[in-house]
Amino acid sequence: MITKLGKLVHTNTLRFKLVVIMIANVLIPILLLGSISFYSIYSILQNNIEKGVQSRMKEIVHTMQSSLDNLGYASRQLTLDGDIGGRLEQYMNPTIPNNLKSDIQSDIESRLTLISYANQGLGAMYYFIPEQKLNLFETMLIKKNVNPMDFPVLRSEPVTLYQGPHPSIYLYSDNMVFSIIQEMTGNKNLPKTYVYIETNFKVFRDLFPKDAFGFHVNYLITDGSQHILYSDLAKTYPVNSQLTLADNKASQIVSKHGQKLFAERGEGDWSIVAVVDKNDLSNEIISWSTRYTLIAIGSLAISLLLAWMTWRIIHQKLHLLKNEIKMTADLQFDRPYVPMNIVEFDEVIDRFYLMRTKIRDLIIEVEEKEKNKRKLEVQKLKYQINPHFIHNTLNTIQWIARMHKQEEIVNLVSVFSRILHYNLGKEGEMVQIREEINALKDYVTLQKIRYNHHFQVDFHIDPLAEELIIVRFLIQPLVENAMYHGFADDDGQIHVRVFKESATFFIIEVEDNGQGMTLETKEKLLYAENDARKSGLGIGFNFVNQTIREYFGEQHTIDIHSEIGKGTLIRIRLPILSGGMTE
């Protein structure tokens, strides 16, 4: 595993260099553009977010001011109208008959109902007299033991109090609302009477949504002296505590407790403050950074993929070229032309094939020259003696011997003539095994006469192999080596075997029971250069070896099995020829 990883990251490989270049091509623009873009977009997003929050805060303040103005308008309708004051004075008079009082009550309630329906943003409303702890004309069920004068004052005017936010005075609701208390004026006979009107609970809910800015927001509301009247963060900013803001700014941004406070002042010096966590403000920037990082990672992954694909294409072409070079080194010139379909590589492979063709032609030319040289050497050996002169001389000797009735000499000369005729004949280089064996038998007969029958040669010829084609004068040198160099006693025995091994190969074996040879001698015969073979028994073996190579090519095998004192076996395996020499 470590070795594979080492190869993968080896700095001298083409793959490594391509990956580095691709990564650099992607990372350098990404880092340069990313750093510039980050600072620019950070500033833009930061300013846009802050301006967006301030703009939204202005809308909230405006909407809240409209709600307060709506309360003021409704309260003035119920207090400044002199007719309503007179009707209240009549209603409070104990001498007024009940039926008339009932009419007055219905009239006032109908006016309250009309105002309530005309202003959907209004909630509970009624008249109350604090001195008498009396509530009159309630439009909704009111909580008991609740004094409206105790609610926090948002803004104060001579006869008007704007209050809130505070829980609704409605019996079945604790929703936060704004309210107004308006004192009735112009009726001296009435005790101090006030009208109470609060907003619908939806007003506060719609004014202060938690996610209006795309991130979580908490709200504070302060009065003119910057005391906190309402707080979503009671632990950090308790109600009734002082919030330090600049007195002379309608809009401002303050940082406190790892948070940003966006304050917007309304009429009457009350303020609404949006409290935003700084981390929430940076979410947009973080989101942009995340998207940019993902794009960078994606671009890097694509660049790595492209680098791998590029390396794969180049590696395939280089591997193909490497195989072509290897096959040429192994002298395999028959591989067809394979285009690479890339102009630059095709130019290289074209030049390589041209070089390969020239190398093949040179090798063929050298082989042809060597082949002709070996043939010339063989022909020189054969024609060193004039065959016609020898045959004529032997015929003369045979005729004289017959005249003198020397039959043994006649037979000896007859056998010798047949041997010379076979070896020096011009009928062709290739003969049948039958002819080669017959000539070999004549040669053995001649040697027996010469050595007075001191050895025995046995022939074991497969009938199926008799008509196979062989090179003339191939087996005789092996038998001759066995006779000259193998025997030390008079009981020498030689076995000559020829048989078919298969449909495509046949075997020649020459075995003797002579002295045998050492391993060193065997190695010299098989593997030494020609000069090492040109002495002793190596002369005949060298001739056999060269002849086989000339006519049978590299398809043959020659094996020598020998033991000192036991004898030697030479085994030759040759391809079966169809007629003449192999192509």
From TrEMBL:
How is this protein situated with respect to the membrane?
Answer: Multi-pass membrane protein
Transmembrane helix as UniProt keyword: yes
Coiled-coil stretches noted in the UniProt entry, renumbered to this chain: 359-386
The EC category is transferase
Record's keyword annotation contains Transcription regulation: no
Q: Which residues cross the membrane?
A: 20-42, 292-314
Q: Which SUPFAM superfamilies does this entry report, sorted A to Z?
A: ATPase domain of HSP90 chaperone/DNA topoisomerase II/histidine kinase
Q: Name one GO molecular function term.
A: phosphorelay sensor kinase activity
Q: What is this protein called?
A: histidine kinase
The EC number(s) given in the record are: 2.7.13.3
Q: Where is the major localization of this protein?
A: membrane
Report the catalytic activity: ATP + protein L-histidine = ADP + protein N-phospho-L-histidine
The entry's localization annotation reads: Cell membrane
Pfam families according to UniProt: HATPase_c, His_kinase
Q: Which GO terms describe its cellular component?
A: plasma membrane
**Keywords assigned by UniProt?**
ATP-binding, Cell membrane, Coiled coil, Kinase, Membrane, Nucleotide-binding, Phosphoprotein, Transferase, Transmembrane, Transmembrane helix, Two-component regulatory system
Enumerate the spans annotated as Histidine kinase domain: 474-578
